[in-house]
Amino acid sequence: MAHISCVGLACLDYLFSVPTLPSGGGKSFADNYKAAPGGPAAAAAIAVAALGHRASFIGRLGDDQTGREVVRHLASRNVDTAHIRLIENETSQVSSVIIDRSGERQIINYSSSTLDSDPSWIPEAIIQNSDFVLADVRWPEGAQHALRLARTHNIPSLLDADITPVDISGLVDLATYTVFSERGLEMVSGVKNVAEALSTIAAVTSTWPAVTAGERGCFWLEDGQLRNSPAEAINAVDTCGAGDVFHGAFAAAMAEQMQLHEAMRFAGVTAALKCLSFGGSLGAPDRAEVDRYLAGKRTAGGGDRVESACSQSGNKKSRRG
User: Fold this and answer.
1) Structural domains in the chain (count)
2) CB < 8 Å & 24+ apart, contacts of 121-124
3) Are 198 and 230 in contact (CB under 8 A)?
4) Residue 248 lies in a domain
5) How far apart are CA 244 and CA 222, in angstroms?
6) Closest Cα to residue 308, out of 208, 225, 228?
7) Beta pairing, strands 177-181 & 54-62
8) Residue 143 counted as domain residue
9) Is 92 domain-assigned?
10) Which of 93, 300, 305, 311 has the most Cβ atoms closer than 10 angstroms to its Cβ?
């Protein structure tokens, strides 16, 4: 069992299931509802624990009912919550997530701009004693601190590089591995084409770059060639948190020293299985479920080689963004 520390955002997701996503004003009615812990690092920690590893979440919340509810949810999913800082007189992060019949979602997030960003309280020992460190970009100060400590102690690390209003290029350069969202990759590289963008990142940083591309699967560079692990063909019910679960599963795979193509397939399958049930991060599959799926779908690995131009089209499959 590896110990994986996940540093970044936690929030409470209020999930509503509706026939179609609403537009404009007016009133809509949901046919299902759940409250679940969200946030990239928190959802990744849930995935790590579900896959059989020790997961620690490190982050900040307000010292309010919502914050305590997030802590309770994480603890109930076997995530270590000893390094969560509850800040007095502050409001915890919350999201309203509207999910339609196809699994597509519409998210409104509130994160307090006054929540103390200082990461100096993070104990160096928790990072030093980890086997792997995952950080998201929603708390950039915490990510920088954790990634620097990981590098100091030769702990491999992963950055979940989604869109953010601040420059994260310095964080990318600190991480051993960086898995971008498509928009995050374009934001950092300044290039829209996936192959060119990954090559740009590889040329100017020390990280190993990859990108999740929804229904087109995930792409990465290996021996100078662009590789692709196709998305699993599923009927998605709820895509909320799928990208976060992908990152948690990739961290678990690398902590287990899987080959890159194995890790990408493993992460993609874990994220796809999450999409089969309503409930955001609570849908993260356990290890037995992932192993059963992989045993029934074994293919010769290595990742499909694709042309360097990287076509922007593909079959309609699961979404993992």
Assistant:
1) 1
2) 121/85, 122/7, 122/58, 122/83, 122/146, 122/149, 123/83, 124/149
3) no
4) yes
5) 23
6) 225
7) unpaired
8) yes
9) yes
10) 93
Structural domain contains residue 310: no
| 45 token code pair | 């920690």
Q: How far separated are the first and last CA of the chain, in Å rounded?
A: 28
pLDDT in tens, the chain (321 residues): 999 999 999 999 999 999 999 988 889 899 999 999 999 999 999 999 999 999 999 999 999 999 999 999 999 999 999 999 999 999 999 999 999 988 888 999 998 888 999 999 999 999 999 999 999 999 999 999 999 999 999 999 999 999 988 999 999 999 999 999 999 999 999 999 999 999 999 999 999 999 999 889 999 998 889 999 999 999 999 999 999 999 999 999 999 999 999 999 999 999 999 999 999 999 999 999 999 999 997 654 445 544 333 333 333 344 444
Q: Is 218 left (phi over 0), alpha (psi -120 to 50) or beta?
A: beta
CA-closest candidate to residue 219, choices 204, 231, 207:
231
Residue numbers of the domain that contains 97: 3-21+30-112+122-305
φ and ψ at 232, to 5 degrees?
A: -75, 140
| CATH classification of the domain holding 63 | 3.40.1190.20
In degrees and rounded to multiples of 5, residue 97 shows phi and psi of -120, 115
**pTM metric for this prediction:** 0.91
| DSSP letters spanning 276-295 | TSSSGGGGPPPHHHHHHHHH
- Token couple for 97: 């997530």
Structure tokens at 98: 């509207």
- Distance between CA atoms of 93 and 95, rounded to whole angstroms? 7
Residue carrying the six token digits 């950080």: 135
